[in-house]
Design a protein that fits this description.
Number of domains: 1
Distance between the termini: 154 Å
Oligomer: single chain
Helix content: 55-70%
Structural class: alpha+beta
Number of strands: 5
Shape: elongated
Number of helices: 9
Strand content: 15-25%
Largest sheet: 5 strands, mixed
Strand order of the largest sheet: 2-3-5-1-4
Length: about 280
């Protein structure tokens, strides 16, 4: 009987341990990917950055270089409208478009300020066509920025983050308690934000590489014209003088009323001084 009871007790303990224990594969994966006290978020990101930086340096030599081209061109033209129509035709011929277009007029000049987006492979041809218009070049500058390393690094980061995302989702399926589920869910949320931010940056760089930007300014000097000052009619001048004088008189009354105490004291002092002066004159 004692042997039977001992056997039942041992079997019960073994079954309870089996139910409470997690699979070895899950425990190893959880230790690798869930943030623990030994490896916090910043250390995890630092290790990932070091790895990706090394990979980017190698991969960047094998891909097409990513160059962002931009330029600034200012021209003095003889006929502003004709030159604008010529630029419109050139923009259409290279499949470009206006990102921004402004026209302003001053006393001396009419000025078009144009922001033009041009396919990168047509940028030099478009610049040469603009310069061949026979206009005076006031200012010209061209800039080429190499973003190959940043582009490749972002692609590597994106690929790694997506791989980690897949692994975290697999871990989430095998989570057995609330604490692990919350940790994995938080990491998935942060990875989704990082992936979205990286994708936006890649799209922006791709757009800047594909389309170059030219800031074009067209200005035309206006001919000098003398315009005489217009004189008002005599009746209008009399009316303005009457109302102006009346307003000044009212202002003077306001001034007297505002300073009546000082004026009264001044009058009393003058009166006293005058009386003394008269007495002095009589005594002499």
């Amino acid at each position: 009987m004692k042997k039977l009871l001992l056997f039942v007790l041992v079997v019960t303990l073994l079954l309870s341990c089996g139910r409470s224990k997690k699979s070895p594969e899950y425990m190893v994966a959880l230790e690798d990917f869930v943030v623990t006290d030994e490896l916090d978020d910043m250390e995890w990101e630092a290790e990932l950055d070091d790895y990706e930086g090394e990979e980017s340096a190698d991969v960047s030599e094998k891909v097409t270089r990513k160059i962002i081209k931009s330029g600034t061109l200012k021209l003095d033209v003889q006929d502003l409208l004709d030159e604008k129509r010529r630029v419109d035709a050139l923009v259409r011929s290279v499949n470009g478009y206006y990102e921004e277009e402004n026209l302003r007029s001053t006393n001396s000049k009419d000025i078009y300020t144009l922001t033009i987006r041009i396919p990168a492979n047509n940028f030099e041809r478009f610049m040469n066509s603009i310069e061949l218009g026979g206009n005076e070049i006031v200012h010209k500058s061209i800039e080429a920025k190499d973003v190959t390393l940043e582009y490749v690094d972002l692609e590597t980061r994106l690929e790694n983050k997506r791989l980690y995302m897949l692994q975290y989702r697999e871990l989430l399926k095998g989570a057995r308690n609330i604490e692990d589920i919350l940790k994995i869910t938080e990491r998935i949320r942060r990875l989704e934000e990082e992936i979205e931010s990286t994708v936006r940056r890649l799209r922006y760089l791709s757009n800047q590489v594909s389309y170059s930007t030219l800031q074009l300014t067209l200005s035309q000097n206006k001919p000098f014209r003398y315009v005489a000052n217009q004189r008002a009619a005599a009746s209008e001048k009399f009316k303005q003088a009457f109302y102006g004088g009346w307003h000044h008189f009212v202002d003077f009354l306001y001034l007297l009323m505002y300073n009546w105490v000082g004026i009264l004291i001044s009058l009393i002092v003058l009166f006293v001084l005058y009386r003394r002066y008269r007495r002095w004159r009589r005594s002499v």
